[in-house]
Design a protein that fits this description.
Blueprint: H1 7-16, H2 18-39, E1 44-52, H3 64-81, H4 84-94, H5 100-104, E2 107-111, E3 117-124, H6 127-149, E4 154-158, H7 173-198, H8 205-212, H9 225-246
Antiparallel strand pairs: 1-3, 1-4, 2-3
Helix pairs in contact: 2-7, 4-6
InterPro entries: Bact_polysacc_biosynth/exp, GNVR, LPS_length_determ_N
Main location: membrane
Subcellular location: Cell membrane
Length: 247
Amino acid sequence: MEETISLKELLQTLRKRLSLILSITFIAVLVSGIVSFYFLTPIYQASTQLLVNQSKSDQTAYQYNEVQTNLQLINTYNVIIKSPAILELVIKDLNLDMTASELTQKITVQNEKDSQVVNLAVQDTNPKKAKEIANKTAEVFKTEIVKIMNVDNVSILAKAEAAKNPSPIKPRPLLNIAIALVVGLMAGVGLAFLLEYFDNTIKNEQEIEKLLGLSVLGVIATMDDTDFKNSQKKQARNAKVRGEIIG
C-alpha cells in the first residue's frame, strides 16, 4: 500500500524539529551579517555618460540613416573604451598601480536599447578613485577615438561626481541577511524532514498501531533506578505491615 503523509504529520514534524530549524536559520543570519558588515570590502560606483552623434556640416537636422549609423557604432565604441589602447593611457595619466586587464574588470560600458547615450560606470573601493577613473576614461576615449577611427562624434554629457557621503553599491548587508534568512529557513526545514525520514525508531503506541495495523493491549512503563529502589522499599514496607497484621 502506498504510504501517504498528511498535512497534520508535516506540521507535527516541523513542530518537533522547530528548535533545529530556528537554530540553523539563526546561524545563517548571524554568519551573513558578520561577513557582510566586517569582512566584505565596500564597493563604490561612479558613472559618466557619453553621446555618440554624427558630425554635422551644413545639415541642421538628424536623418534616420545617421542615427542608425551612430547606433551601430556604439557597439564598436563599447569595445574600444575597454581596450588597452584607451586604458593604458588612463593608467599612465592617473598613475594607477594596476594593469589594463585589472582596470577592465572595474569598468562597465552599456547603452540603452536604441539610444545613442553610452553609460560608463567604474567600481572601486575608493569612491574618489572611481570618479577619477570614470572621468579620465571618458576624456581619453573622446580624444583617442579621433585618431583610432578618424571621427569626431563623441561628446561627454555628464561627468562623474563623488557625493560627500557616498553609499556603497555592494555589499548590501540587509539584502544578504534577508537571503540568508530564507536560505537558512529552507535548509532547516529540509534537514528536519530528512532526519524524520531516516528516523526509524518507534516512539509511542500510536506509531505501533499505524505500522502493524494492530491494537495495543498494554504499555510497559519505563522505570529508572530511583523509581525501582523506591518501589522495592514500598513493597518491603507493605510486606512488613502485612506480617504484623497476620502476627
